[in-house]
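Bumping with the actual sequence this time:
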Amino acid sequence: MSEDGGVRETAVLGGSFNPPHVAHVMAAYWVLATQGVSEVWLLPSYVHPFGKALAPFEDRVRMCELAAAPVRGLHVCAAEAELAGDPLVGRTVRTLEHLVAKHPDRRFALVVGADILRETDKWYRFDRIRELARLVVVGRAGHEGAPGAPALPAVSSTEIRARLARGEDVGGLVPRRVLDHVRERGLYRAG
């Protein structure tokens, strides 16, 4: 229960977080500051829904923890690992069903970028997703978000990985603690 006796609402911001970058943190902070939620959970994908290669799950969870640490109310949820082996692991609807069952004392909001909102016809059971969670749309560069939502900077994990593989600087795009972890673990280096 929340302080006022109502049901707490938790916003879920899912993604590959391969690696998490400053736009992820900015989106989470905007949701915390404006959407009346008690907290935001970064939820790293256990597997990519389209089969793309990812850094190890444990590293992506740790990087999310490092990115979240400075922001009060921002936490990490590794619930998708609990669904390992489930044929629908990585599908948003399955993850939300799992979270709702596991946390019956909460309501959930799902944070989505305006750029992927146009692709909901490709989502598995989007109708059910809308039953399970309130949608919160954040703006992305070139895509209009919810009214009043600022467009977040065009920061791309794909571009960050490419720059890291080439040995280029990514300062200002990735939280410093995340970048330290990437370097310590030798992630995203050219093969």
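The tokens above came from a reply further down the thread. Residues 22-34 form the longest helix (13 residues).
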